Amino acid sequence: MDKETTLAGSTDSRLVNDVLTAFFARSKARAAAMHPDYRAMWEHLEACTVGGKRFRPRLVMTVYTLLGGANQAAAATVAASFELLHTALIVHDDVVDRDFARRGVPNVSGTYRNVAEKQGASPARAEHAGMSVGVIAGDLALSNAYRLLGQVDTDLPIRQRLEDLLDEAIFASAAGELLDVLAPLDPTPQPVDEVLDMARLKTAVYSFETPLQAGAILAGADDRLVRALGEFGRCIGIAYQIADDLIGVFGDESRTGKVGWGDLCEGKRTALISYAAEQPQWPRIARLLADPNLSASGATEVRELLIESKARDRSMQLAADHTEQALQFLLEPFVPQALRDGLTPLSDVVSERIRA
Amino acid sequence: MDKETTLAGSTDSRLVNDVLTAFFARSKARAAAMHPDYRAMWEHLEACTVGGKRFRPRLVMTVYTLLGGANQAAAATVAASFELLHTALIVHDDVVDRDFARRGVPNVSGTYRNVAEKQGASPARAEHAGMSVGVIAGDLALSNAYRLLGQVDTDLPIRQRLEDLLDEAIFASAAGELLDVLAPLDPTPQPVDEVLDMARLKTAVYSFETPLQAGAILAGADDRLVRALGEFGRCIGIAYQIADDLIGVFGDESRTGKVGWGDLCEGKRTALISYAAEQPQWPRIARLLADPNLSASGATEVRELLIESKARDRSMQLAADHTEQALQFLLEPFVPQALRDGLTPLSDVVSERIRA
Question: Which of A41, A43, A87, A136 to mutate to test the interface with B (most CBs of B within 10 A)?
Answer without folding.
Answer: A136
